[in-house]
User: Fold this.
Amino acid sequence: MSDNPLHTPRALNGRAPDVFRKGAWVPMREYSQNEAVDFVVIGTGAGGGPLIARLAEMGYSVIGFDAGAYFRPLEDFASDETSQSQLYWTDERLIDGANPIKMGSNNSGKAVGGSTVHFAMVSLRFRPEWFQSRTKLGYAVDWPLDWREMWRYYDKAERDLAIAGPISYPWGPKRPRYPYRAHEIGGAAEWLARGAEAMGYQWSETPLATVSAPRGDSPSCVYRGFCRVGCSTNAKQSQLVTYIPRALKAGAEIRDLAMVGRIETNAQGLATGVHYHREGQWHFQRAKQVIVAGYAIETPRLLLNSATDRFPDGLANRSGYLGRNLMVQSNQAVYGRMKEMVRWNKGPPSLTITEHWNYEDKKDFFGGYCWMAQGPLPLEWSAAVSSSRGLWGEALRQKMMDYNHQVGLKMVGEMLPSMENRVTLAEEKDQYGLPITRITYGWQDNDKTMIQHALGEMQRSLELVGAQDIWRQENDTNHLAGTARMGFSAESSVVDADCRSWDVPNLWICDGSIFPTTGGVNPSLTITAIALRTADRIQTLHRQGKITL
Amino acid sequence: MARYKGPRGAAGWALGLTGALTAACFAAATRGGRMARHPATPPRASEPPPSPEKATLAARRLNRSAGTLAASVLFDSAVEHYRGDFENRAMYTPIVTSALALAVSAHGTFDKSPAAHKIRDGVYLLTGVVGLIGTGFHVWNVVQKPGRFIWQNLFYGAPLGAPMAIGLSGLLGFFSERVRDTPIGQTPRLFGLPAGRVIGAVSGAGMVGTTAEAGLLHFRGSFHDPFMALPVTMPPAAAAALTNASLGAARTDRRLTRWWLRATAIMGVSGTVFHAIGVGRDMDGWRNIQQNLLNGPPIPAPPAFTGLALAGLAALDLMEDDSDV
Amino acid sequence: MSDTLPNPLDERYPGYDVLDKRLTPSWNDATRRVIDARLAVPREARFLNALEWRTLSALCDRVMPQPTYRPPVPLAAYVDQKLLSDTRPGFRDAALPPQRETWKNGLAVFEAEAMARHDQSFHALTPSEQEALMIEAGAGRLGHAGWSAEQMQLFFNGHVLTDILGAYYAHPTAWSEIGFGGPASPRGYVRMQNDRRDPWEAIEATPETVEKTRKENRNVR
Assistant:
């Protein structure tokens, strides 16, 4: 490796890394700091990536900032859990509350492409009713978005990411055929299918953002199973290999290793640009519009840290909702041992799914959940066995020898929003001199009821296929949402349906933090669909003269 | 995204070349006549009595087509059953039988004797039966899987149509022996019907089946390369023309059919090149051969079309040699 | 390293060594770089002092006792290296100080409690005495002046176990032990179904087939 992407920015001097070729570059347009660009987008993940690409393709001048490194997967990614923590947001964050959330590998990426560089590629649509969960299902709040419009943007997102999915998906309204065919299901995934059939539930191949046949410069998936520590094949359709190259081609600039610490606002209460830290010093980039896409921790952190006399509680926080209603998803699991050699690490980890309890409303809790097959790598697995079973020493070493015989089912469940689950700033400072976050989280009764329901169901599924030595992992969570809720009014939300902040008209938030509720499926595809919609809305509003550029 | 970029460098050149070749064949096929070596059908009155040499020649051509099919199956089933780790001992069967079929077909192709050969006959019969039994095994494999006849299992389970390729090889070989056995002074017949018509119809049906399999697998590959449309468009047209010739009126002009079949035969062979390029395009290409030979496009599969097209051509010869057809 | 043959039941994948694949298509350059560096870790204290190192080593021996028929994974060295580079996981329980301080405090509590109860250093206690203290720590019953039982519990479950097991299962020796295929890029896997093995994957032995499997596994790469 000629350079270290973690220490020196790569997107400099009119070029950016070619993510498909070792040591190669692609041309990149650059903007001056003094030029007020049309848009700066802070964050290049599932929300920021599509926005940067679409806005650039519409002809706007755009700069995408990311605090993380600009990797070339083929030369920078090892098949190794430990060293690939280079993909995670490992800056310090304090956790507390009744059920503190584990951060880092679980839910936070720090790289160009964001968490999509290490996500499990599960690309699911929300159940339509979730956009109106208050009206249709009687809990939480409604979204200001119409599901039919979202359905169109899901179509677009699935095409852009070449999702590999089943010919017909068993749940929800009709959707077009996935652009790529589903992958072959592995041993662990087959046990989910057999369990579901024994329970009388439908199952399906999970729609995944990794190609099952070549696509452009992406070869097809090789089933190496290291998906969650970065794809060194480039089969995974992360932002890094999809929207970001598109954005560069359309004339956007990407600034890697560029940590935005503060959004500047003027006397009129408008954003004028961003202060960012790169190559050892602070800089200021002027901009006409600022879009924050840092996900549910860094987004409120940046806005809280951008407080001024005019906005003493942080930008876009007149409602007091900023940083509140943080949601994770229940990620409990049940594991067992099969007589057969399963070798569950082969292939993407979540090849099959059942969304039965997302679409079945006869239950004693609000919200829904799905469960998927599992295939953790040894490090993650040893941590789960040790923490959930309270094992160490020789007992643990012996249990670990069953690795190749293990199967597991893991839920992704909807936790309900609560004002008490929140992100605040702590006294402690990070390496940039910025206050770090304190993340406070506790499960509510509904969350606990759902978790117990899911654990019982997943256990039954494993029992029905003859798994032995069954046990439950009761403490895991993943994904983030909330903290900058989208809503119908400035009094009870941070942004409107277009992701535009109520308080600062040229400030936008577009990532998982705008979710009013989090649904019972992985959020990335919904974030991307909303980002695609936001780009279209921005263009429309601009044409109508409702945005000044 | 979706900006498709074709293969670069040598692969691109090879692709272009095979494409051009295929296109040339198309052009030739549509222009027909001028390049035809067979003169237009002679008038009935001047028809000479059926000659045993012609029957033997047709039989040898059928041996050649059976051999081509057998070769395709030999390598394809070897690769695929290796992929399946020879979990069941029976998975060696198609390799052995297709090797035998290949051997006797080679023998038959060079054998000018006007009589059937007992060993060849036996091997072909066995091969045909193995095709049928293999289909049973493959169906059994699929119904064991969760969801049974769902797309997942049609894509990734034992391919339901594949064993019939070796079955067809056996059947064509068996027909070849019957044609060879044609008594002097008679025209070749099968089941009391003109041999050319029967073999043409069988080859056409085989081509449709093979198209279905190629279509299924290319659908699995999302038709990510535009050339993947060729094997689901050319062979059905050839099959339709051949079936029409086999079941249609006697003494018609079959030159177009002949050229379509020739083009299809070339497409089958060039398919191996396309598939080889596909293997090279997968992760780390030919250096990662242990993976890509198994997970990439099957290199030995496409010549199955060649085998069937050759059988179709032999059938046309038989029809033209038969003054009643 | 001793010459004694292992208990057959202890070795599920006899003869399998994931490092045999180092030069195959299962490893790319990035992986070789990372694993080579891991195997070359200095086996000495660079961050902790001598006493802390001995306490840590004793904890490592209890958390992951290693068989004697192969060279042990130098667990204490990896924990020390992690502290030296201050590699963090991205979150910290608000009740704890940063990880370096947490480790130093936690190790000091084990040492202090050992002295208080047995008048001996923690590393000099018998394994069962050490384990007794560790179990108390994990259950939230072991506090010491200025360091609460709750902090000790968070330290034991969130740092001692996590860091030591994290070091062990990041090591090729552990991958070989559990039959994990290890690094897999550019070459991944082909045979996805249950009971199917790719030729570059470990073969599991039964008590009857240990020696046969050992020979077969030597050719797995």
Observations:
- Residues 11-27+51-321 of chain B form one domain.
- The first helix of chain B runs from residue 9 to 31.
- Confidence is low (pLDDT under 50) at residues 1-11, 21-45 of chain B.
- The CA atoms of residues 57 and 112 of chain B lie 8 Å apart.
